[in-house]
Amino acid sequence: MTNTKIEWADATWNPITGCSKISEGCEHCYAERMVKRFPKIYPNGFAPTFHANRLEDPLHWKKPRRIFVCSMGDLFHKDVSIEWVCKVFDVMKRCPQHTFLLLTKRPEIAKAFTETMFHFGFLGSPEPPDIIKTRFSHVWLGVTIESLENLGRAEIALQTGFKHKFVSLEPMLSSFPIGQYLFPAEHRDYFKWVIVGGETGPGARLMKYDWVMYVLDACRRHKIPFFFKKWGGGNKSRLLDGREWNEFPEAMK
Ligand code: SF4
């Protein structure tokens, strides 16, 4: 198992690595820094790359885990082939004991994937869409939104065919009117989990206390689990108002 220091996951699984910058939250990308540091492990650099030798790892992890999928890239990057994505989904399908957490800044590609693969049959399976959706209910689609400019990603992520969705506001670079996405509306679902975190590493940008409290209040109001990762910058504290916030959705425990 690949243990992780990421507070909200038990393990990472990287059958696909690599990405390219898409918005301001990518400025200090951790994955890109790691790839540059370990060129022997990542000979293709940061270009999207399939690692066949890692594909079946979760099949060997018997104990149920919360697994962050593709922490070293974006599964829904435009240069990740549909064939690779299908291989990843096939393994997830065979591991219902785990919870798989996908996190993307490209929800429009995730939406197109679910529309085609979930709707018209997954890997040649003729099952109806609802059955497929239930079969993948242990796969959560997360979307990263770092500033108001990217709020449109929320609407798109909530229209994907995944049963459960969550949102990661990390690195949090502005305040968010996130409350509007914490309850169902016509033609869309809602986020069942919210993660907030400040930026870390060299040149980290500050996250303001008021921004975090606004999101926490919205989560309290709508009874949505809230996970506070850390303040970031030089401040490694995980405390917010004197306590840690490590809440998980019931369906994920
Ligand atoms: S989307 Fe994520 S992995 Fe890709 S460049 Fe941005 S921060 Fe890095």
Bound molecules: iron/sulfur cluster
Structurally, how many domains make up the residues?
A: 1
Number of helices: 6
* Element order: H for helix, E for strand: EEHEEHEHHEHEEHE
Category from helices, strands and their pairing: alpha/beta
**Strands side by side in the biggest sheet:** 1-4-5-6-7-8-9
pLDDT averaged residue by residue: 93
Give an overview in words.
There is one protein chain. This protein is of the alpha/beta class and 253 residues long. The protein has one domain (11-20, 46-252). The protein is built from six helices and nine strands; from the N terminus they run E-E-H-E-E-H-E-H-H-E-H-E-E-H-E. The protein has helices at residues 30-37, 82-93, 107-120, 129-135, 152-157, 209-222; strands at 11-13, 16-17, 49-50, 66-69, 99-104, 139-144, 164-169, 194-196, 226-228. It has a seven-stranded parallel β-sheet with strand order 1-4-5-6-7-8-9. Strands 2-3 form a two-stranded antiparallel sheet. The longest helix is centred in the middle third of the chain and has 14 residues, at 107-120. 40% of the residues are buried. Iron/sulfur cluster (SF4) is lined by residues 19-22, 26, 29, 31-32, 73-74, 105.
